[in-house]
Each structure stands twice: as structure tokens, then as C-alpha cells.
């Protein structure tokens, strides 16, 4: 569960700190995840139960637009979407700055394998990307 949460925090903090050589502490990771969640929950109105079922059990409700837009909000906050496509350049840069190589490499490989997913809009793209990441490597699936 820690690894799931670590990437989102790392990417969020990396977006806020353009230059950094140190990796994030567990406390920093928890705080960044909390910040992302607290920002995106009220923006989207996603039901916490649906969100928890996705994160904990891998239940992706295709009909839940609020869940899709929550994921879109998270990826948007991470600056991981550009022109309705996943921006691997941004992901790689942020992961390499914030995660130890042994942790970051697994995540980058998984994200690369899912980078070709598409969606009708940012919310749909984020949902399809998250589902691909979960199905490819559950340990690389990080959603606050």
C-alpha cells in the first residue's frame, strides 16, 4: 500500500519542487498524498466508497464519471497529461528526482507499458490509464 501511495506523492512534490536531489521521506509522501486527495475529492465529488473499492480491490466502475474525473484531477495535479495523452517525459523526470532508482524503475516501466491508452477526454484517459496500470502491475498502481 505504501508503494501505491508513494508515486502520487513523489510526482506531486516534484511538480512543486523543480530541483531536488533528495528522495522523499515517508512523512513527506503521506502529506503529499493527503494534499492531492483533499484537493481532488471536493472538485469531483467522488464517492469515497467507490474510490476505496478501486484502490483496495481493483473495482473500476466504468459508469462512474466522478471517479473518472477524480483520476483526471490527480493526473492533472501531477502534470502527467498533455494534449489528452500521458506525458511520460514529465513522469520520468519527476520519478527520477523523487524516488530511489529501485522504486522508480518499476513504476516507470509500468507507466510506459500503459502510455498508449486513449480516452475521449482527460477523465476517461485517466481512468483507462489507471485501469491499465492496475492490470499491469498492482504494486505500481498509486492513487491517493
Automatic annotation (TrEMBL):
Its main location: secreted. One of its GO terms (biological process) is sensory perception of smell. Keywords: Secreted, Signal. It is found in: Secreted. One of its GO terms (molecular function) is odorant binding. Residues 1-22 form the signal peptide. Pfam families: PBP_GOBP. InterPro entries: PBP/GOBP, PBP_GOBP_sf. GO terms for cellular component: extracellular region. Belongs to the PBP/GOBP family. This is Odorant binding protein 9. The lineage of its organism: Eukaryota, Metazoa, Ecdysozoa, Arthropoda, Hexapoda.
Amino acid at each position: 500500500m505504501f508503494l501505491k501511495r508513494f508515486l502520487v506523492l513523489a510526482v506531486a512534490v516534484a511538480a512543486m519542487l523543480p530541483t531536488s536531489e533528495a528522495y522523499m521521506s515517508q512523512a513527506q509522501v503521506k502529506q503529499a498524498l493527503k494534499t492531492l486527495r483533499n484537493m481532488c475529492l471536493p472538485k469531483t465529488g467522488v464517492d469515497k466508497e467507490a474510490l476505496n473499492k478501486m484502490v483496495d480491490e481493483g473495482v473500476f466502475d466504468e459508469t462512474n464519471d466522478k471517479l473518472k474525473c477524480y483520476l483526471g484531477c490527480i493526473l492533472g495535479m501531477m502534470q502527467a497529461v498533455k494534449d489528452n495523452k500521458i506525458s511520460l517525459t514529465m513522469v520520468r523526470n519527476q520519478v527520477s528526482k523523487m524516488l530511489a532508482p529501485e522504486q522508480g524503475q518499476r513504476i516507470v516501466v509500468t507507466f510506459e507499458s500503459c502510455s498508449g491508452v486513449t480516452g475521449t477526454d482527460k477523465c476517461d484517459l485517466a481512468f483507462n490509464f489507471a485501469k491499465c496500470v492496475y492490470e499491469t502491475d498492482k504494486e505500481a498502481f498509486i492513487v491517493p
